[in-house]
Amino acid sequence: MAQAAAVAKPPAPPRRRRASATPRRLPYLLIAPAALLMLGFIAYPVLSVFYYSLRNHNPTKPWRNGFAGLDNFTHAFAHDPQFWDTLTFSAKWVVVEVGLQLLFGLALALLVNQTFVGRALGRALVFSPWAVSGVLTSAIWVLLYNSQTGITRYLADAGIGSYGTSWLSDTSTVFPAAVVADLWRGVPFFAILILADLQSVSKDLYEAAEVDGASRLKQFWHITLPHLKDAIVLSTLLRAVWEFNNVDLLYTLTNGGPAGETTTLPLYIANTSVDAHNFGYASALTTVAFVILLFCSIAYLRLSKFGGESR
Fold it and tell me: How far is residue 237's CA from residue 125's CA, in Å, rounded to a whole number?
């Protein structure tokens, strides 16, 4: 009977070979060299800044170099009024620039999203300033603000203002002059991102709203803006970080002047490290700026509910 039972027992199913893990790991192995290289280029400078922020490091005064602990941070917060002045101006610069760039960028995106003759040319003209480098943008506006050959010369010829006026050397006009110069290059950034998102809005929503009698303003408020929420949040965050770190335009236009009126915190850091060779203190200021940007970015994303559903 035992023999019969053994004969009646069904054969065991064939063992399945374990799928090789190599195909699944292959993409990660292929990108590993580039990822490690990028990590090295990013991690080493960041860690170096944190390291030097805890030291006194000045190549011109090597006898003073050594571990400083938190002295650099204490000096920044308690004994350096220029730090607070530059931080305040940086906040003012970011709020004004990002707010105006968003406003004008949204208006331009809505305009070039319409159907009209020559729309392709109009879009190219709107977006062209974004293709210009920051240094070249600064050079263009330096020439435009030149007191001898720039805008003020032609205004003086028309009886507006006086000859020899320089908007970049006057404390009452340097800020709006710098704002206008940066607006020329920054507005297309918002226009590009917002236009790309506008083109994905279904036209059926607008047609249904028109049938229900909704005005253009209500369509914009209840259809367009909710759809653009994530694009606006992301673009304002990116632009705020870039404007906070703005050095090239202000350095070329005003070099932080006159009388330090346009010195941002990154420009102050650049002057502290490059001109004064105080790399330890500059690293501490950089660390403070990094923490400020990180905290503000996280808070902004949480408060704006980025990626969540719009009501």
Answer: 25
